[in-house]
Amino acid sequence: MSKKSSNTDIHIIAEAGTNHNGDLATAKGLVDVAHQSGADSVKFQIIYPYGLYLPGEYWYGHYDIKDVIKIRQDSMLQDEEYHELAAYAKEKGISFTSSVFDTRGLDLLMNFDPPYIKIASCDLNNIRFIKEVAERGKKMIISTGMSSLSDVEKSVNALNKMNFDDIILLHCVSVYPATLDQANLGFIDTLKTAFGFEVGFSDHTGNSLAASMAMVKGARYFEKHFTLDRTQKGFDHAYAMEEEGFTQYVSELHQAANALTRPSVKLGEKEIYVRKRARRSLYASRTLKAGEIITNEDVLIVRPEGLMHADEIELVIGKKVKNTIEQHQALSLESLDS
After folding, report:
1. Other residues' Cβ atoms within 10 Å of the Cβ of residue 26
2. What is the CATH number of the domain that holds 289?
3. Number of neighbouring beta carbons within 10 Å of residue 63
4. pLDDT tens digits for 244-297?
5. CA-based angle 110:99:17, to the nearest 5?
6. Is residue 1 situated within a structural domain?
7. Domain that holds residue 230
C-alpha cells in the first residue's frame, strides 16, 4: 500500500532517471519505492545516446565523451522493457512518465499515455523539439536550469504562438548537488510574475528545506532524484536520495503543504487544549464581599484559563459585587451587578 494519505494539492515527481543502470528489475524496484513513498508520479529518462550527443571524439568538460556514451549505452532499457515497466507502474497505481530527448523517445513515451512530458533543462532552448512535443497535446513540464529569463521567454513565446499553454515551469539550478544558498529561490517569483504559469521546483539540494521554502513561494510541483543505492556507478546516484530519505522528503513536503493550507477554523482541538492551561483569566486577589466595588488591585490576571479572559478586565473594574467572591475564585459577570 502507498503511504500517501495527504489531500494536499502538490505533486511530487519521483525522479528515477536512469538510476536503474539498464536493469529492468532495478527499474521496477524504483517504481516500488516511488509508490511506497507516496510520490504522485515516477519519472524516468528515455535516452538514446546519439539522440543527445554528437558522434565522434571531442572535449566534454572533465568527462571523456567515449566514457559518457558507454555509460549511457550501458544504462539503457530496451523499448520493450519500457512497455513492461509502464505496465508495472500502472499495476502499482502510480503515474508513469519520462523525460525525452529526441523524437524516438517521444514516440515511445506516447505509447504509455503519460500524464505529462518532461523537458530537461538542457532542452529548454531546443525550440524545434519542444514544439514537436507540444504537438502531442500533453502537459509539458519544463525545467529552467542553466537558463536566463530571456531564454525561458523565447521558449514560452514559441509555444504561445502554437496556442499551447499547458505548461509547468520548474525552477532549477543545474548544480549537482546544490546547497541551499545556491538554490536561488527568489527566481520562482520571477517565473510566476513573468509568465503566469503554474510553477515548481526541481530540487537538487540534500533535504526538504529548499522545497518547503519554494512551496511558500507558490511552487506546487516538486521533482527529486532518488536511487536504490547511492554508491552505484552512474551520473545521478551520488546526489540522489535513497528510500528512507526520499520517503521522509515526500512526507515533509506534505506536512509543509498541510501547514500552509488555510483551515476552516483557526484553532484546532490540540491548540484549544493548550489554551486552557496557558491563557490568563480574571481571578479575585482577595475575598470580595457583596456590595464592594472592584478595583484594579482586586483582580489577578493569571493562568489557567477561567471564566473571563484577560482582555475583559474593563468589564469588571468599578462594578459592584453581587454575591461574595472567595479569594482566587474566577470572576464572572454573573457575580457582579450590571
Report:
1. 18
2. 3.90.1210.10
3. 12
4. 999 999 999 999 999 999 877 888 899 999 999 999 999 999 999 999 999 999
5. 125
6. no
7. 11-260
